[in-house]
Amino acid sequence: MLLAININNTQIKVGGYDGTDLLVDWRIATDLNKTDDEYAMILRGLFQYAGLEFPAVESAAISSVVPPLTEVFERLCSRYFGVAPLVVGPGVRTGMRILYEHPKEVGADRICNAIAVYEKHGGPAIVVDFGTATTFTAVSAEGDFLGGAIAPGIGISVDALAEHTAQLPRVELSKPKTVIGRSTVTAMQAGIIFGFVGQVEEIVRRIRTELGGHAVTVATGGWAELIVDDCRCFDHLDPLLTLEGLRIIDERNRTADVTRPAPS
C-alpha cells in the first residue's frame, strides 16, 4: 500500500492506495507541537479502525507546506513503516513543466493538484483549493503549470474580522438562508460566504479569459463544500484531488516512463 500524506497548515490528509484504488482516507488536525511518535499513534488508531496494520505500507509520498512537519513525517515513515518517503519538491519527477518565475516557490500541494486535474480532465484547467489560503492554479492545454492566484482563506478571514473589530464576534461558518442578514451573526455569515462566492467566480472568469475561453474548473480543499454549491463556475468537486496527485507523482518516480521532462 502507498501511504499518501498531504500536510497543510490546518489539516493533514492521509490516503492509502492499492495501485490506483483509494482504500482509506483520513484528516488529522495539524499540530506543530506533536512528535513523530504522537502522529504515529494517531495513525495506528486509524489503521486499526480500518482493519489495517502498519506492515501493509510498502511506500509513502509526502507533499507539505509546513517544513517542520515534513521532517516529522519523514522520521515517522522511517521508524514505523520502514520506508523512505518520496517528498514532493525540487528534483522530483512530476511530468509537468512548472512555468513559474521561481519554480521552487510553488507549494507542493498546488503541483499535486495541477497534475491530478490534468490527468483526470485534460487542459486547460483550473483548480481552486479552499484551504488555509484559497489558491487558484491554472494548467495549460499542453499540461504546463502556468501559475495562478493566492487569496486569504475563508477561515483566516473569519478570524481576522473577529480579531480586528471590537463588536463583531467569531461566528460559525454556515451558509445563511438569505444575503440580507437580520442579525449580526447572519449578516457576517452572508458577507463572508457570499463574498467568497463573488471573489471565486470573478477570479475564475479572469483566468478562463487569459486561458483563451472555457477551462474545466475543479474545487477541492476543506472549505470547498461550503462554497461550491453557490458558485456557477465549477465543473467538479474533488475533495481528494491532492492525494490523487501525490499518487500519480509517486507512480511516475517509480517508473522510467515519464512522457514530459522533469522541471529544472
TrEMBL record:
Cofactor list: NH4(+); K(+)
Subcellular location: Cytoplasm
Molecular-function GO term, any one: metal ion binding
Catalysis: reaction(s): (R)-pantothenate + ATP = (R)-4'-phosphopantothenate + ADP + H(+)
Listed GO CC annotations: cytoplasm
Principal location listed in the UniProt entry: cytoplasm
CDD domains hit by this protein: ASKHA_NBD_PanK-III
Keyword terms, alphabetized: ATP-binding, Coenzyme A biosynthesis, Cytoplasm, Kinase, Metal-binding, Nucleotide-binding, Potassium, Transferase
Enzyme Commission code: 2.7.1.33
GO biological process: coenzyme A biosynthetic process
Gene3D superfamilies: 3.30.420.40
UniProt keyword Transferase present: yes
Pfam families tied to this protein: Pan_kinase (PF03309)
Pathway: Cofactor biosynthesis; coenzyme A biosynthesis; CoA from (R)-pantothenate: step 1/5
Residues the record lists as binding K(+): D129
Cofactor, free-text remark: A monovalent cation. Ammonium or potassium.
Record-listed substrate binding positions: Y100, G107, A108, D109, R110, T184
HAMAP family reported in the protein's UniProt record: Pantothen_kinase_3
Quaternary assembly: Homodimer.
Membership in a protein family: Belongs to the type III pantothenate kinase family.
Protein known as: Type III pantothenate kinase
Gene coding for it: coaX
